[in-house]
Amino acid sequence: MATGTKNSPAAKGMRTVDTQWMDVVGGAYPVFDVMKGSGGKDQRFVYPNDQPSAYVGRRGRRRTPGQWTVNRDATLVATAGHLHPGGLWTDMYLTRNGVKKHIFRSRAKYWEPAGPVSWDVAMTATKPNWRVKVKQGDILSINATYGTRSNSWYESMGIMPVEITDKPAIIYLAAPAWSFHRDFEFYARMLSKEIELWRFELHENWRHEVKVIARVNYSESGR
């Protein structure tokens, strides 16, 4: 890792993130078995939903595997799933005041022509602009779905780490100088002061060559 990155000009637009590890089983080797034909009529097995004994005997644990109680106000910025052969997708949910919302599905893309039967697979991840605000006391939960039509799957996994930052997002707005709306300044100053807002004004021939002719950091200007 390079030293001195904190004072680098590039570091000014970066936010520190923490990783909250989440898996549906817990423990040093978090695996479970999926039997052929198990699950619902659609022949898809969802762990832990379709495994009544999934967390039996775990009441003394500090947390329930597959769940995390958010310990501070923060923002989720990225996640992606991890599955073994036969896996179709992982899902992440946010529960607040008893209301549960689905916030992301990470799908498996198998390159094997025979379908979801090999390790030749990639998982979809959140887009760069994906952001979810969370509050202390919210509950994040995940599950993993496997197809059971043709095979049993042993030592399966369902993992979904999530990246978290305690700081608000940085907003960059760039456009030709003349194209910013006349009321931009008014609305920019109405934003929460916690949000770092930058305005970059480009010269009029920006399609030929991008040049920044003015920049304003509304956080530093006091709004």
In summary, what is this structure?
With 223 residues, the protein is mainly beta. It has one helix at residues 184-188; strands spanning 18-20, 32-34, 44-47, 67-69, 74-79, 82-83, 87-96, 99-110, 121-123, 132-134, 139-147, 153-156, 158-159, 162-165, 170-176, 196-202, 212-217. The strands form five sheets. Strands 3, 4, 7, 8, 9 and 11 form a six-stranded antiparallel β-sheet that branches.
Indicate the topology.
Blueprint: E1 18-20, E2 32-34, E3 44-47, E4 67-69, E5 74-79, E6 82-83, E7 87-96, E8 99-110, E9 121-123, E10 132-134, E11 139-147, E12 153-156, E13 158-159, E14 162-165, E15 170-176, H1 184-188, E16 196-202, E17 212-217
Parallel strand pairs: 15-16
Antiparallel strand pairs: 1-14, 2-12, 3-11, 4-11, 5-10, 5-14, 6-13, 7-8, 7-11, 8-9, 16-17
Please give the domain count.
2
CATH classification class of the largest domain: Mainly Beta
The proportion of residues in beta strands is 35-45%
What profile does the largest beta sheet have? 6 strands, antiparallel
Estimate percent helicity. under 10%
Oligomerization state of this entry? Answer: single chain
Mean pLDDT across all amino acids: 85
Distance between the termini: 36 Å
Q: Could you list the spans in which at least 5 consecutive residues all have pLDDT below 50?
A: none
CATH architecture of the largest domain: Sandwich
Describe this structure in words.
The chain starts with 17 loop residues before the first strand and ends in a 6-residue tail after the last strand. Strand 15, helix 1 and strand 16 form a beta-alpha-beta unit. The longest helix has 5 residues, at 184-188. Strands 3, 4, 7, 8, 9 and 11 form a six-stranded antiparallel beta sheet that branches. It is elongated and about 65 Å long. It has one helix at 184-188; strands at residues 18-20, 32-34, 44-47, 67-69, 74-79, 82-83, 87-96, 99-110, 121-123, 132-134, 139-147, 153-156, 158-159, 162-165, 170-176, 196-202, 212-217. The protein contains one helix and 17 strands. The protein is mainly β and 223 residues long. It has two domains: 16-165, Jelly Rolls; 170-217, no CATH class. Helix content is 2%, strand content 39%.
